[in-house]
Write a structure and sequence with these properties.
There is one protein chain. By secondary structure, the chain is of the alpha+beta class. The protein is built from 22 helices and 20 strands. The strands form three sheets. Strands 11-10-14-8-7-16-19-18 form an eight-stranded mixed β-sheet, with no helix packed on it. A seven-stranded mixed β-sheet has the order 12-13-9-6-15-20-17, with helices on one face. The protein has a five-stranded mixed β-sheet with strand order 3-2-1-4-5, with helices on both faces. Helix 18 packs antiparallel against helix 19. The N and C termini lie far apart (79 Å). The relative contact order is 0.06.
Length: 777
């Protein structure tokens, strides 16, 4: 009887221990599935299963492992704990292990619990060092547990472990074979799809909508087929494998999203009649513009979905070729989305600009930089354009003197532009003297003043203002054909008009100023009159041809309505001085000169600027010196008096300029010719502006130096915006940015790096944006 009771007691004890051990392993698996933050596959369910399985395996062998190995997972986890919960779990495991060692007791359940808690804590660890180091550390901590646990496990446990490993290995092998077959089979689809996308985009740039639609449709079919294969029954299981899964999922998702973008873009190219987006006989159908909005919005939505997918599939476990392709694609989408926004905004306001809701009236100022002003040069003639239901008409053309003499007398007009414009330029009698209306470097400010003064000067209310200089007018002559004018041996064309308007006219007509002005009027009037009935190319070709002209500030246009002006600002056509970005250390520097001698000597004025600064990324502190050189090459004879003479009593060939420097920073000191000098300090466009009048004799040079200092946003990217003043000859600009601190730096837009200094030297024929990136310490 006693023996039977002992056997029953022993059986009950073993069963209870087995149950306790089973509960411990089960709890370990559940805890691993719910509490770990590891993402070996990038799939939530698969990650939970793999984590739970790993913790269960560790708990199983931790039950029979040497007690000293219990400390390894928990100890390592405590050292690299990712968060507070990981620290708590590691601490609890270490305490239980210590108690077992001190009492010299152990149980399978206790060993399983200690190792499980330590493993869960390890799986919550933050990455350390290079990618994969954390995983290697985890393997190093787990190996002694698995080895000693297997060695001291019973034969039955060892046998089961081998069988499970064999079955699991076989299943994983089959998954890998399926994945390999799938990847190999889609190579052709991916290559052909990529080529079709390139061909479709090239056709779209050439405005060949039919070819673009066909190519992009083919790309969509090829990429959709690739995604279908990678989602098939023999490939899909491999997506649940660590390391392998993220790579297959990334390729499949890229194929799916690229296929969707190609399909949507193909439909947009098929359904949207881009050929109708052009002036034919001087008319552009506003409804054709409006019809483009929905297809463009569909393309943008597809791009945004693709960007979200790219961000989601990015994983540190991706192979380098796949990761590089994803990062490149992410950058490409970042570049394309602003263009999509710009296109959508443009077609949204396009019908209004085209007079779909009522006639729109725009004033065109014909300017010349040979008598410089702050932004677009001296305005000599003007034209009034009216657009009604897409039809362009020139309703008035005249000389700028008509606006000075017409309407309300000049001394009775009010100047009601932006307050900083009024405060700075009222002294130049802008209200009565239209020749000075373009003094500001910010064209929207100029346009507001023009729109206010035009009705007071005998004109009608305006909806917008445009400025066109000789290079801009020459570019437009591409679409109007040659202009034959009396007194010229050959017609003016797109190729020779800029040279004639900037320079040749003065030597050809000598002192026959009235005849010269008549010719200028004839050229401008004829060109714009022909534009009102011309056939213009589509938007892509027009953009390719005029973008350099617009970027150089030779054609500028803005409206008086904020809603319609915004897309023009985004497109960069409105001539606005850039607003500094808050997320960067964004500096701006702008030099303008305005002719103050009433001559054409700026044709011979050559300007150069050297901006040397030191920037501290940690504090945002900036100190620097701007060196401006103005060289006057005006001849003293051989040209008419109105070109090389002056109205201020200076010797023939002299240049008097009103020089202004716009900066965000305080002026610490100024020098002219190396000697201390004073400059007037005002504010305009949320900047300091330092100005002075400078007289430069023929053949002479004026040197101006400004020491500047200030503080920008703390950032590891310094950005410098340098707007360009359209001039007879482009400025030569040199920028040297020295970065305080240590570590590598990188320069954009052709800049070179020497030690800790980034250097640029180039002509300022359009606005520049330069950036320096400094490595974080």
């Amino acid at each position: 009887m006693t023996m039977v009771l002992r056997r029953r007691t022993l059986f009950t004890t073993r069963r209870s221990r087995t149950v306790s051990f089973g509960v411990a392993v089960g709890a370990a698996a559940l805890g691993g599935a719910l509490l770990t933050t590891a993402h070996p596959t990038g799939m939530t369910t698969a990650d939970a299963i793999w984590s739970g399985a790993l913790v269960a395996i560790m708990a199983t062998f931790g039950a029979t492992a040497r007690r000293w190995t219990w400390f390894l997972p928990a100890g390592v986890a405590a050292a690299i704990a990712g968060d507070g919960l990981a620290t708590v779990l590691a601490a609890v495991a270490i305490v239980i292990a210590f108690v077992s060692v001190l009492r010299d007791t152990r149980s399978r359940a206790r060993g399983a619990a200690v190792v499980a808690l330590g493993t869960i804590a390890l799986l919550r660890a933050e990455p350390i060092g290079f990618h994969g180091l954390t995983a290697l550390v985890m393997v190093a901590a787990a190996t002694p547990v698995l080895v000693t646990g297997y060695a001291h496990a019973g034969r039955r446990v060892q046998s089961r472990a081998r069988r499970v490993a064999l079955v699991a290995g076989g299943l994983i092998g089959l998954m890998l074979v399926g994945a390999a077959l799938g990847v190999v089979s889609v190579q052709g689809n991916l290559i052909d799809g990529g080529k079709a996308i390139d061909g479709g985009l090239a056709a779209a740039r050439d405005a060949d909508d039919d070819t673009a639609a066909a190519e992009l449709g083919q790309a969509a079919r090829q990429l959709t087929a690739a995604d279908s294969t990678l989602s098939s029954w023999f490939v899909a299981p491999a997506r649940t494998l660590p390391i392998v899964g993220p790579n297959i999922a990334a390729v499949g998702e890229l194929a799916a999203q690229a296929g969707e973008v190609a399909d949507v873009t193909s439909q947009a190219a098929s359904n949207a009649d881009v050929d109708s987006l052009r002036f034919v006989g001087g008319r552009l159908d506003p409804q054709a513009v409006a019809n483009m909005r929905k297809p463009l919005e569909n393309v943008k939505s597809a791009l945004e979905r693709m960007q979200t997918s790219v961000d989601d599939i990015d994983s540190p476990w991706l192979l380098t070729p796949i990761a590089n392709r994803i990062h490149r694609l992410d950058d490409q989408i970042d570049d394309v989305l602003p263009d999509a926004d710009m296109a959508i905004n443009a077609v949204a306001v396009g019908p209004t600009l085209l007079g779909a809701d009522g006639p729109q009236r725009y004033l065109v100022l014909f300017t010349t930089p040979v008598e410089a002003r702050g932004r677009v040069g001296f305005p000599g003639n003007f034209a009034e354009l009216t657009v009604t239901d897409g039809k362009l008409d020139m309703t008035r053309f005249g000389r700028i003197s008509e606006l000075e003499q017409g309407g309300v007398p000049g001394d009775q007009r009010t100047l009601a532009g932006p307050p900083d414009y009024v405060a700075r330029y009222s002294r130049f009698d802008v209200a009565a003297t239209w020749r000075n209306v373009t003094m500001s470097p910010d064209f929207p400010s100029v346009a507001k003043v023009v729109a206010d003064l035009y009705p007071q000067s005998g004109g009608a209310p305006l909806n917008g203002v445009m400025a066109v200089d000789p290079q801009g007018l020459a570019a437009l002559m591409r679409y109007t054909g040659p202009v034959q004018v009396e007194g010229l041996d050959q017609p003016l064309t797109n190729a020779n008009a800029a040279q004639y308007l900037l320079s040749d006219q003065y030597s050809l007509f000598d002192n026959r100023n009235t005849q010269r002005i008549d010719v200028l009027e004839q050229v401008a009037r004829t060109t714009f009159d022909r534009l009102t009935s011309a056939d213009l190319p589509g938007p892509r070709a027009l953009g390719d041809q005029l973008d350099p002209i617009v970027d150089g500030g030779h054609i500028q246009f803005t409206t008086t309505d904020v809603t319609t002006a915004l897309p023009l600002f985004v497109a960069g056509i409105n001539g606005q001085i850039p607003t500094p970005r808050d997320d960067l250390a964004n500096d701006t520097i702008t030099l303008t000169t305005a002719n103050a001698a009433a001559n054409k000597a700026d044709l011979f004025l050559h300007r150069s600027e050297s901006y040397d600064i030191t920037w501290d990324p940690e504090t945002g502190k900036v100190t620097g010196t701007l060196h401006v050189t103005l060289k006057n090459d005006t001849p003293t004879s051989g040209l008419p008096t109105y070109v090389i003479g002056n109205a201020v009593g200076l010797p023939v060939g002299s240049n008097r300029s009103f020089v202004s420097v716009y900066s965000l920073f305080d002026l610490d000191a100024a020098r002219m010719g190396g000697q201390p000098a004073s400059m007037q300090s005002e504010t305009e466009l949320d900047r300091h502006v330092y100005s002075t009048f400078v007289d430069i004799p023929p053949g002479g040079t004026a040197d101006i130096e400004l020491d500047l200092s200030g503080t920008l946003e703390r950032s590891h990217t310094y950005r410098l915006d340098i707007p360009a003043q359209p001039f007879a000859s482009p400025d030569q600009v040199a920028v040297n940015v020295t970065v305080a601190g240590k570590g590598p730096i990188a320069a954009s837009h052709g800049g070179t790096v020497e030690d800790r200094t980034a250097r640029w030297s180039q002509p300022l024929d359009r606005a520049l944006t330069l950036t320096v990136s400094a490595a974080r310490p």
